[in-house]
Every structure is written in C-alpha cells, then in structure tokens.
Design a protein that fits this description.
single chain; 265 residues; alpha+beta; Glutamine Phosphoribosylpyrophosphate, subunit 1, domain 1; five-stranded antiparallel sheet; globular; disordered N terminus
Length: 265
C-alpha cells in the first residue's frame, strides 16, 4: 500500500495574540497521484473559520504557476492575528515562486519548498495564535508542490509543518520536507478517513467503491475519490465542489474549477 500523506486539519478557536483574537481559515481534503509523467491534484472547496462555523464552500485551494507548477495545501491557510498582520499560504507561495523565477529558468521543487518554508519561519510567533496549540502534535499545515523539472519529468514534494508552544522556549517550529513517491497511487492530505477506508478495502462500501472506481482512468479515479470524500466525510470540514488539475510537460490542464478561482490560475 502506498505511503499516505496525512494532516488532520485544525479548526480550533484562535488564541489571543497581540491583543487580538487570532483568525484562521482551514478545512481540506486533497487527493492526488503522481507519476514521472503526470501529477493529478484534486481539492474540495470548504474553508472554516476559527469559530467552527462554515465560512464558505467557495475556497480556491489549487494554484498554478506559469503553467509549470501547482501548489496546494491542507490545514491552516490564513493566519490573521491583527488587522495588519496576516500570513496567507497561497499568497506567500506565489511571492516565493516569482522571486525564484527571476534567477531560475525552472524552479526546482525542493528549492521552492525550502524558500517557502523559510518565509513561514519568520511568522512562527504569529502562528501560535492560529496553529491550534491545544492540538497534542501542534500540527498546522501540509504544503504540496508539483512542477515540471528540467528534463520534462514531474517533481513532487511536501512539507509537513508544526508549531508547538514550549513554556520555557516559546514557539517551536518544526517541519518535514520529503519527496512524494511517483508511483501513481492515490494519496491524500487533510481529512482522509474515506481515502483510508478505500485503500484498506475491508468495508462493504469500500469494496463497492473499488468495483466502480478501479476501472476508471487515473484522472477520473482521483476525481471520484474526491467526490466520495465530499459525500461521506462526516467531519464537517469537507464540502463544496471538487476542483482538479493535471500537470504534465505540456502544462496545466484544468479538469474542473470554480469560476471565482480562475483568477488564481
């Protein structure tokens, strides 16, 4: 069975920081598969605020850069601890990518993730208010980046981020950057109970899903798994339309996307 990337999304009430109530937007199910020739990435549309209420089912969680790269994430996307102090995972990703492109014809996956990670470190203190430090493992976000490499093959990498509060040392930032296996198997990040059930293939409904989905094309299979997650996930943190993009050496092809998300693409 493939290695499954998981990051249980944090939806806790924001802690007080800098005399302001920290705000956050989170909620996600990312399902994807990658081979050396192709990355297929799908995402739901639900974003939650720090009060546990549904903020919107119109979230745009997949962003394409220069028709050669895709960035997506699960976990806390926006951390706002004051009116003028906000960190946004997507906006930062675009800024980092543009900066790297000035001096590089191709932005390698590892270079991008290290630069994005370093930018995030500058906001470690702010994240204590948004990262849900009441969560035992301090989990905050998993970022995923897919791009076309120098020789036309796909590169894929993820970064699992945590921020833990230490009574003596303050916030402790930890990360784990790793290459994603290019094995073509379904993987996911976020609320993955349904994908876990599908991959385990033990329940009656999982077996029925396999009978239907296994014959699908890779693109249709990932899309179907996204739809199943949206339908059967009971966390309240997954919903809305399933957006989906495919990255190859020919560029990014959007299989489905909401109209309001097209400006990011």
């Amino acid at each position: 069975m493939n290695s499954l990337y998981r990051m249980f999304v944090l939806i806790g009430v924001g802690l007080v920081s800098s005399s302001a109530v920290a705000q956050q937007k989170s909620g996600t199910a990312i399902i994807f598969s990658v081979t050396p020739e192709k990355a297929i990435v799908s995402a739901d549309s639900r974003e939650l605020d720090s009060t546990h209420k549904i903020a919107t089912d119109q979230g745009c969680k997949i962003v394409a850069f220069d028709n050669r790269a895709i960035f997506t994430f699960s976990g806390t996307r926006v951390c706002q601890v004051s009116q003028h102090n906000e960190w946004d995972a997507q906006k930062t990703a675009l800024s980092v990518y543009k900066r790297l492109r000035i001096s590089n014809k191709v932005v390698r996956a590892k270079d991008f993730m290290l630069a994005w990670d370093e930018e995030l470190r500058l906001h470690t203190t702010d994240f204590v208010g948004c990262s849900g430090v009441h969560n035992p493992d301090g989990g905050m976000m998993t970022a995923l980046y897919f791009n076309v490499g120098l020789f036309g093959s796909i590169e894929a990498i993820d970064d699992e981020l945590t921020v833990k509060q230490s009574p003596s040392n303050g916030p402790i930032f930890e990360h784990r950057i790793a290459e994603i296996a290019l094995n073509g198997l379904p993987m996911g990040s976020g609320h993955m109970d349904i994908l876990d059930e599908f991959l385990a293939d033990r329940s009656d409904r999982a077996k029925s899903w396999h009978k239907q989905i296994d014959a699908y094309s890779p693109e249709r299979r990932i899309q179907a798994l996204g739809q199943l997650t949206r339908r059967f996930d009971d966390s309240g943190s997954v919903g809305g339309n399933i957006d989906m993009a495919v990255l190859t050496s020919n560029g990014v092809k959007w299989i489905s996307t909401k109209q309001q998300c097209q400006t990011q693409q």
